[in-house]
Every structure is written in C-alpha cells, then in structure tokens.
Amino acid sequence: MIPIDTIQSTAETLMDKAAIEIPQDYLDGLRATAAVEDGDLSSFVLQAMLENYEAAKEDRRAMCGDTGCPRWYVKMGNDARIEGGPVALEHALRLATANATNGVPLRPNRVHPLWRTDHNNNVGINAPEIEYGYEPGENGAQANWIDLTTVHKGGLFGTDYRMLFPSDGIEGIRRFFLDSLVAFGKRGLACQPAIIGIGLGGSKDTCMVLGKRAACLRTVGDRNPDPKIAAIEEEFKELGNSIGMGAMGFVGKSMVIDCHIEVGYCHTGGMQMSVHAFCLSSRRAVARIHADGRVEYRTDPDWFTPYQRRETVGWLDQLEAAE
Amino acid sequence: MAPPKIRLSTTPTPEALAALKLGDIVYLDGLMYTAREGVYMRALEEKANIPMELPQQSAANFHCSPAASINSDGSFTMGAVTATASFRFAKWIGEWFEKSGAKLIVGKGGMSPETYKQHFVPNGAIYLTTVGYGTGALLGRGVENVEAVHWSEELGHAQAMWVLKCTNMGPFIVASDLQGNCLFERENAKIAPGLAKAYEGTRPATLKRYGETDDRTDELI
Ligand code: SF4
Q1: Which of A66, B130, B152, B159 could bond to B83 as cystine, CB 3.0-4.6 Å?
Q2: What's the complex ipTM?
Q3: B5-198: CATH topology
C-alpha cells in the first residue's frame, strides 16, 4: 500500500523540480543547437537561455515567469494500491499543485474561461489535468509502484490540429508541420527551439493527446520504435531547422530540438494530425513511488512503453507475436 | 558579432531613446509597473484612478504577470518574471499612452508595424521585447524589490499592477525605434525568400480551411 502522505510530499517536490531544473536531455539538446547557431540575435537568445537555466538553479527560482499549465500523468503498476484510493490520490495532486504555487512561487495562471475567476493556486474546474496509464509487471513480477510525472506545459501558441486524408500523404503532413512551425515561430510565439510532438491518427481528441504526450513525455534523442516513423522524426527535425528561422523568429536555424511522432489507428478515410511545441521551458519531473515508500526521482517519464503502444487485442497476444 | 549592450532608465530622455537601434540589447534601471488587460480595462474603461504618478515615477509599462506571492505579513516573494504577448493589447495602447505618458512598452514579441506607426511614433515611445522568451529567472534577478502591488484584490495576482524596482534588469531587445521601424518585420523579410525552398516537397491540404490563403508572408497577428 502506497502511503498518501508520501504521494503528496513527492508531488510537491516534483512541482518544485519541474519549475526550476531544466531536464538534462533538453539542456544537452539546446547546447548542441546553440553550438551550431550562427545568427547574431538567435545566438544571443540561446546564450541568454542557457544563463537563465543556471540562474534558476542557483536562486531556486522558477526558470520562466509563466507557469504554463501544470498537469499530471499518473502511471500505475498493475498491482499498485494507494492508501485512500484514486480519490485520495487526486486530492493529493490538487493540493500539491496549490501548495507549490505559493511555495516556489509559481504564477497562478488558471482562471475560469468566462468569469476569469482566479483562485491564485493553479487549481479549478478540470485543472490541473490528471491523466492515467497502467503498466503490467515485467516477466510476471508484481508492479506495485506508481510513477508521478508533472509537466508544466507552456505555450498558448504553438499547437494546431488538422484533419488530413490519406491522399494528402507525407507531402501533406510535411506541409502542415511547416505551416505550424512558421506560423507560431514568427516573433518566437512558440518560444522555440522546442521539442515538437506530432500526433497522427486516432480521432480528434486522441490525436491531440498523442501529439501532446509525444512532445512532453519523450526525451530528446528518443526515437519511435517503428524505423520508418523514426526516419520521419529525423527528417522533420532537419527540415524544421533549415527554414532560415531561429529563436524568437530571428534569422537562424534553431527551431526544433527534437521531433517525436506518436500514432493511433484512425478512421479508414482520414489521417488526423496535431502539432505541439514543448517550449524553451520544457518542464517535466518524474518520481517512482514504491509500495514500501521508497521514492526515486528522474526526468524521463518513460511513458511510451511497448504496452502503451500495443496493437493486438490483448497484451499477451502481442508478447507471443513478438516471440 | 554580439549586439551592443546599453543601460537605460525607466524614465528615459528623448535623446537616450533616439540613440537606440533595432536589435540593441538593453538593461533597465528604475521603477517599472506591470499593466495588461486587467489594468487597461480598469483604468480606461472603468475610469478608475491610477494609483501611481505617471510618467514621473515610471514611463515603463511591462506586459507581465510575475511569479510572485503576497505573504500574510504583506511582504512579497519574487520568483521569476516573464512577459506576455503584447499584440493582444493593441486596442488599448493609444489611450494608455495618453493617460500614462509611457515611453517604454516592455513585453513579449512586439506589436504590429501599424501599431508602432499609429501610436508609438506620435508618443515618442519604443518597444522592448524580453528574450527567449523564457528568461524569467534572469529577469527576476533584476528586480531589487517589489515597491507595491495595486488592485490585487480587484484583479487577482496575475492582472494586478505590480510596481518593480529594477536594477540592471535584462536582457531586453529593442524591437521598435522612434521612427516606428519593426525588428520582427525586418527579420521576417529576410527569412521569407528561403521559406519557399523549405516548402518544396509539400502539398497544400486536400480540404481547405475557410479563410485560408497560400501567402506565406501572412502573419497571425
Ligand atoms: S511558452 Fe514556455 S518559455 Fe515561453 S513564456 Fe510560456 S512557459 Fe515560458
């Protein structure tokens, strides 16, 4: 049984870590980008960002004044039991979000869409989002842990959805990718260079969810296990960095730190596509809490396991097919 | 070549402003206040009295909501400071210049060339953009203290009028000059010709969207 106090204190630590410590994979990616950027202004922007991450860690201050929208991804091992059940878990995550808003401090961003009511704590109706995934134990072992991931997703700009069709093909996908990049890249509205996540297929909502998770839950350098999709990821990263634009929309070549694509089976007549930018403040922090109360912190959510991407009716069918 | 760095007062002289060129890097000293849609609506539409002497105390309007908290003893904890996109405030900016005498509009991403020509030039004002735009921790360091927070009850923390004492706060980039030239427009013009090449091997979507054009000089704002 996982103690609920541990969940809440871990969640508060995660809020703090996400807001202040840039994940190493993104930092390495940005350094590599900065090393080849030759546009004067773009270079200046990237150097300022690198200094900013240092300042944030030194001062224990949020890296960006804009909190974005803090959200939670909870992955439960198949055998995990939580003290108080899922209702207690959600309460703990909401409380941790509110406490951290005051504690770090973070800017309270969340308001009612119509009445603009502000609770000054980033909590409200349907906020923060809490999404779930489940994971079987490996090789018949019990999985009695939970993984908590918080993502502080910035960017009112940088996201788009479009219904494409099979006849649009890769040329249509490429076009919509570029359209999104250029539209929001001008003036740097997307706060690029960013991790670009692309969702393909599913239905409208699944497509958005997959694209957002591709941007937020996969680390720089990670590739889709389908080699042909992995090749498109590489191609799009190159393509995005060769349009002549860089940070803040200045002349340069730093738009994309990495590109991640996730797919879902869709209606036979359609090919949904969504594009998401995980900005210069790519804030994510992860912890695994074990049944005995042990907590391990990391920055790779490791969300997209073979189980999450399964395509057969049952998980066991897939395991057998692989053998 | 690294762009030049300049220290600028938040109550700048016309000469100091005239010397600034597009792309210069600026660090600010003096008082700066945050004002965005909440403050504009309250001051301009509801005609509430602005609780500061403007522009004597400050001629610098920051489009920003800081990540700060107001402690129970009334003191403030200042965290990170990041600007918000300015183009959304175009409808209030002319009237705000008249009322506030602002000379520096500081924010994210600049405003349109039309707004510069129509409102900034006649008021002798320029636009400074934040950098990144995620340099919140660096800018937070430049805030020596919070002098006051006005209208936080009425508008909430995010929309309140925060009065910040700035020392060597930056970096900011000059995005418009006294003639109304626009840095982002200049950059877009340089980038546009190369875009055509990147678009080779793409195809417009089979199903168009209402109002869509194929003109790649289009901008969303
Ligand atoms: S998009 Fe990201 S880096 Fe830019 S202001 Fe928002 S949170 Fe900060």
Answers
A1: B130
A2: 0.88
A3: fumarase (3.20.130)
